[in-house]
Design goal:
202 residues; four-stranded antiparallel β-sheet; 6 helices
Length: 202
């Protein structure tokens, strides 16, 4: 139907959570995505929350974004469960948009509050748009002096490197981050996804 699912998320807990438990939750979410590929993004997150809530201990939660792109119309639908904003950088105009639809993290509420707050955001992808998804481990990555990479440096890097295709853009962003933090061990995961729709070749 010209659509393409692109889920991106981050598992966060106030307590130490085993890798096995996170793997179980990830497999569960992927199963729901496959079962409901044609359902609106926010309805999928409602289902994920309903399945996850009984299995999460107090103080544990999961943040997640669910994105559906229709490749024929170049329109995207985004639902957000307490995750970082999506950054849209247009390399033709130099404009930035920060998009964070309303929504609370998964697992905090068993349903009524979550369902009442989840919002569906729709956007027409423009020529030159680069969609950037990230976990807060990117902006909070620190160097040996305890300085964080930070939102300002991240946006400056996106602007400087965002005219490239998605794959080389991500490679150059990683090199910029590594240059900043050196060999410093990080306390959080660092995840970044970039999407740019390319014109079809003849």
């Amino acid at each position: 139907n010209g659509g393409a699912d692109r889920p991106a998320g981050c598992a966060t807990s106030k307590r130490v959570c085993s890798r096995m438990r996170l793997q179980k939750e990830s497999n569960l979410m992927l199963t729901i995505f496959n079962l409901h590929a044609r359902v609106a993004s926010k309805e999928i997150l409602k289902g994920v929350n309903q399945w996850l809530h009984p299995d999460l201990k107090e103080g544990m939660f999961v943040t997640l974004q669910y994105l559906l792109i229709n490749l024929s119309t170049k329109r995207m639908r985004l639902a957000n469960a307490g995750h970082n904003p999506v950054i849209i950088y247009n390399s033709l105009t130099g404009a930035f948009n920060s998009i964070q639809p309303k929504g609370i993290a998964l697992g905090i509420d068993k349903g009524p509050i979550f369902n009442a707050n989840i919002q569906l955001f729709e956007y027409a992808i423009q020529p030159g748009d680069l969609l950037v998804f990230h976990t807060d481990g990117l902006s909070e990555a620190s160097n040996a002096r305890g300085e964080e990479y930070g939102e300002v440096r991240m946006l400056d890097a996106i602007k400087a490197l965002g005219g490239d295709h998605a794959d080389p853009f991500l490679e150059r962003m990683l090199k910029d981050l590594e240059k900043f933090n050196g060999n410093q061990t990080q306390m959080d995961d660092i995840t970044m996804i970039a999407i740019r729709l390319e014109a079809p070749t003849e």
